[in-house]
Amino acid sequence: MVFFKYIFKAINLFYFLIILILFQKCIDPTVPEFQFAEDLIFIDGFITDKPKGSYVSVKKSKLEFGIYKTFPIEGCQVSFINSITGKSVLLKEIEGVYLPDENFKINSGEKWELNIVLPSGKNYKSFPEIAPFNVEVNSAKAVFKNNVTTFTTPSGSDQSISGHKIFVNFEDPLDQENYYFHRFRVYEETITCLTCPNGVYRNGECLVLDFPPYQRFQSAYYLANRDFTYGCDIPCWDIDYNDQTKIFSDEFSNGLNVESYEIGNVPLLSVNPFFLTVQQFNITKSAYNYFKTLKDVSENSSSLNAPLPTALVGNLYNPNDFSEFVLGRITVASESNISIFQNRTEFGDQAVSNNSAYGRQRLDPEIYEMPLPEPLTFFAPCQESRFRTSIVPEGWYNFNQN
């Protein structure tokens, strides 16, 4: 199989070059270069043996104000197919991501593939892939560090951001090659559920304040240019997902106990505790090679800070046009989870400093005697989404009471 590479390279007109990578042992790699274009299809997803672990993202590249970005494609027919039994599982579209039923899961050793039909009728599939057997993650911990990342402030200066580095321990099996992909999701109870730019929250929506011109020279002008923020009417958690590509091969640690392997960080932006769930995936060698290339390219190209992801060809194809390059990958994997709860009350001053760098909104409520439409409002609903929930994370109270 020919070894191709795509690589992005930003230039003044925001064009990119893509390197397409495939692997072969017998011949030298070739590196064709392509100019980044509109209407490229990007597909990403996982099929796992844990409920709520599987998803598919389908996006298309577009030029917007001179910058290339990707946007979700709505209205696709997306399904997982068991390659042995022919069983088909239809996914639902939720907030730009396609998800199976929350109870859906596969078994290690099963062979699955993906089928996608775009609204235009164009069809994309993945080559079948067998789910590896599970390797349990034994433990996880969060360790505070004064510098976990660097953030460029609105003024253009770089500031070190403190936070917690996340480490895991697991025991690698001796009798097989194993390849791992790690990520995590973080739940943090939030005190703000809505911000209304230049307005207030009334009747379920943000109302822009429009004062008569003669009032604009007094306090009303200040209020009309103020972003009011509102607390949550019930306990509510923000959900964040780490975006680092963390992979591990047991080539030099086969059968050993892997200790304190770093998988990412949680910046300190609040003194509220966080609840973190680690996802350790056992993946195929093909998937590992794909993510390794993704990691190598992203860490050696500053242009990848743009919203557009690295474009790589994985195991996807157009059954009606084998010459079309389909970017992205669907990964069939086994999954092991573990959770940790971390208090942060002692880091108040550093949280304020980090928030200042990020320019994050703080609670800015309405105040009595302000000339605002009645009734004064202080709370907004906790809207359920992939990034926010009112459902208590499983295990939250168990950790919180310890």
| Derived structural class | mainly beta
The helix tally amounts to 4
Q: How confident is the prediction overall: mean pLDDT? A: 81
Oligomer state equals single chain
First-to-last CA distance: 54 Å
Radius of gyration: 24 Å
How much helicity do the residues have?
under 10%
How many structurally independent domains?
A: 1
What does the largest sheet look like? 9 strands, mixed
Q: Count all strands and give the number.
A: 27
Low-confidence stretches: 1-34, 213-218, 302-311
Tell me the β content: 35-45%
Specify the overall morphology.
globular
Secondary-structure map with pairings?
Layout: E1 17-18, E2 34-35, E3 41-48, E4 55-64, E5 67-72, E6 77-82, E7 88-90, E8 92-94, E9 97-99, E10 111-117, E11 123-126, E12 129-130, E13 137-152, E14 158-171, E15 179-189, E16 194-196, E17 199-202, E18 205-208, H1 219-224, E19 228-232, E20 237-241, E21 246-249, E22 257-267, E23 274-283, H2 285-299, E24 316-317, E25 327-342, H3 348-358, E26 379-380, E27 388-389, H4 396-400
Quick structural gist:
The protein has 402 residues and is mainly beta.
What can you see in these coordinates?
There is one protein chain. The chain is globular. 29% of the residues are buried. 9% of the residues lie in helices and 41% in strands. The strands form seven sheets. Strands 3, 4, 5, 15, 20, 21, 23, 25 and 27 form a nine-stranded mixed β-sheet that branches. Strands 6, 7, 10, 11, 12 and 24 form a six-stranded antiparallel β-sheet that branches. Strands 13-14-22 form a three-stranded antiparallel β-sheet. The longest helix is centred in the last third of the chain and has 15 residues, at 285-299. It has one domain. The protein has four helices and 27 strands. The chain has 402 residues and is mostly beta strands.
